[in-house]
Write a structure and sequence with these properties.
This protein is of the alpha+beta class and about 70 residues long. It has two helices and three strands, in the order H-E-E-H-E. It has a three-stranded antiparallel sheet.
Length: about 70
C-alpha cells in the first residue's frame, strides 16, 4: 500500500503556481505562473522530466455524491 504524501507545505508556499516535482513527489525543483516556466526552471536545474502539478489558489472542501 502506498504511503500518503503530505503536500501541506507545498500548497502553502506555491499557491496558484505550477510546480515541478521529483519522482519522490515531495521535492520541488521548479515553479512558476505557467507550466512552461516551471518546466524550464526544472530543466535548467538539471531535471529534464519532472512530475508537474498545479497547486490550487484556494483549497475548497467537497461534499457530495451522485446517482447512477
Amino acid at each position: 500500500m502506498a504511503k500518503a504524501i503530505d503536500w501541506t507545505n507545498i500548497c502553502k508556499k506555491y499557491k496558484g503556481l505550477w510546480v515541478a516535482l521529483l519522482d519522490d513527489e515531495q521535492t520541488v525543483v521548479g515553479s512558476g505562473k505557467t507550466l512552461k516556466g516551471a518546466i524550464e526552471k526544472a530543466q535548467k536545474s538539471g531535471y529534464p522530466d519532472p512530475i508537474m502539478m498545479r497547486v490550487p489558489a484556494r483549497i475548497l472542501p467537497y461534499i457530495g455524491g451522485f446517482r447512477v
